[in-house]
Amino acid sequence: MSSDRLLFALETGGLALPQSGTLALWRASGDMALSGLDAARCEVIHSFAPDYDSWARRGMAVSVAPKGPYAASIVFLPRARDLAETMIAEAEAATPDGLIVINGAKTDGIESIAKALKKRVTLDGVVSKAHGKCLWFRAQGAFSDWVRPVMSANTQGDMTAPGIFSADAADPASVALAAALPETLKGQVADLGAGWGWLSREILSKEGVTALHLVEAEAHALDCARQNVTDPRAQFHWADATTWKSPSKPLDGVVMNPPFHQGRKADPRIGQAFVTAAARLLAPNGQLWMVANRHLPYETTLAANFRDVAEIAGNNRFKILHAARPSRPKR
Residue ranges of the Methyltransferase small domain (predicted)? Predict the structure, then answer.
């Protein structure tokens, strides 16, 4: 656990945080224990809605973007290398002459990040624990070239941001799902886990759609979607798709390419929660279209939540599933 590693560094590894000033926690998991930290001095910086909401419920100061200046910044290393470098550069810029702590697992690339850091700064300390490392150094203005634009155009001309899913181009699974959508798609529709908006544009190509709710947990991805999807029928919601509530009547349709990873581990429970949410959001005659990797076990959850379920398209990589008539009572 990342909190165990940080506590170990504080208690036995020689890491000493400043006695005064704000401590910034960059992308700290919403369920992380604050052992060894003064919660009253901490500010969490997080753009992922479930974690942001979790910290807010705990009464913590939390923001999407850094405010600074900070006495120290603790960066919890993300999986994506471009996002990791961006966060380290932003943390250093927001912590002038302060302490920078990097805490990460081997599976998230801490070893390669550590090698890159050693070429740029003098490390004040390093500890290894729980299949990862915690290391720290003084801000020295050494990472200006790691700063990336908040968003930039990919090869297809769409705006994307560091660390977001399928930033280089449209995801092949979404392309397969879009090809399977009926021209008769109509009414109030939601794209759960809309990302930077490629699939949403395809949904809006159906003239019968009167409104499309783009529901996305990653704030930076949703900001990109606002640039990529300019149709006036689009409505944007920064929220956890599994708990989001439609601001209008029950929906006529849900379209989704749900995530299935938590960090590097495949976790089908995420997609299953999306299915349950779709059933809750849909009107009695509502319909769901979704795409999933061939091996993911969603059919049982679909059958528990819908009266009609069928695979309508697919290949050896993906399956396109259609479900209708949600069977669970609306809450």
Answer: 160-321
Give all strands of the β-sheet with 61-63 in edge-to-edge order.
61-63, 42-45, 23-26, 72-76, 99-105, 132-138, 125-128
- Do 2-146 and 153-326 fold alike per CATH? yes
Rounded CA-CA distance 279/302 in Å is 9
CATH architecture of 153-326: 3-Layer(aba) Sandwich (3.40)
In the DSSP assignment, the letter for residue 250 is: P
pLDDT per residue as tens digits for the range 129-186: 989 999 999 999 999 999 999 999 999 999 999 999 999 999 999 999 999 999 999 9
Q: Are 27 and 83 in contact (CB under 8 A)?
A: no
Instruction: List the CATH code of the domain at 2-146.
Output: 3.40.50.150
Burial environment of residue 34 by CB neighbours within 10 A (0 to 12, 13 to 18, 19 or more): middle
What global pTM score does this model have?
0.94
Residue 18, preceding peptide bond in cis (omega within 30° of 0)? no
